[in-house]
Structure formats: C-alpha cells, structure tokens
C-alpha cells in the first residue's frame, strides 16, 4: 500500500503546536446533577458546551420525561445536529417520515436538513451540534417557558431566528 491514499481527505492543519502535549483533559462525572429539569420531568445535561470545546461542538445528554415531548420538524442554517439514542425509543423525523429509533441508533442532520424528535418513558439520547453554537440559552429559555415565563409571538419568532431554528 502506498501512502497517502488519494481517496482520503488529509488531516486538518495542526492546532496544538507545543512539543510534549499538555494535561488539559476534563471530565464530567455521570453523577453530576443535570443543568436543566423540564416541567415534564425531562432533563438536559451539558456534557460539553461550545464554550468548553472552543466552538468545535456541543454535546448534551437528553432524558425524556414520562409523557411525550420534543420539537416539531424544523431546520438550522448554520449548525448540524446529530442524535444517538442511548436507551428506550425515540421518534426521529428524518425529513421524510417519523422513524422509531432505539438504543444504538444514530441520525445525522446536515445544515438545512429538516428534522424533529419525540420521546417519552425516560428514553435517553445524546444531541451533538457542530459547530458548538450556544444552545444552552435556547434550552434554558424554553425550560423557563415551562415554568411560568412568557413570550409574545413576536418575541418567540425573534428568539427562534436568534437560535438558528426555522419551523416547517
């Protein structure tokens, strides 16, 4: 075999230019309390925010409550979104149909891809956004609406545009 293989993309340019590596890893323990608990009992855990990853990605563990919840079909212009079901079943909209995904199933949605998700019965999944947009404000504001905060239709429309969310 000759190297390099012209069918493969090259690695990106170096970001770290030091000599011996650095001790910069960090851990978020499983027993850490979720950052958000929604009215229906669902939770959102910030595993790695865009701020923590230098804007490369955001990774969140989403646990549904007992009753079904989740957004209707929508798309993003600037970010991709990926779903990895950890346990239970989650209905994912793939732009064509609602499909039932189970533990181990994965769905990737490029920019502009129509998608949605619905879950219940304490199903759990990972959500990953690239690049690492500030989704925490989006999750927290929607959570506050479930706990008594209000938003006019105009405020909601502006909020969705601010957070790259376009309903179809």
From TrEMBL:
- Coiled-coil segments: none
**What residues does the Cupin type-2 domain cover?**
68-128
Please name the InterPro entries in this protein's record. Answer: Cupin_2, QDO-like, RmlC-like_jellyroll, RmlC_Cupin_sf
| SUPFAM superfamilies documented for this protein | RmlC-like cupins
| PANTHER family per UniProt | PUTATIVE (AFU_ORTHOLOGUE AFUA_8G07350)-RELATED (PTHR36440:SF1)
Q: What is this protein called?
A: Cupin domain-containing protein
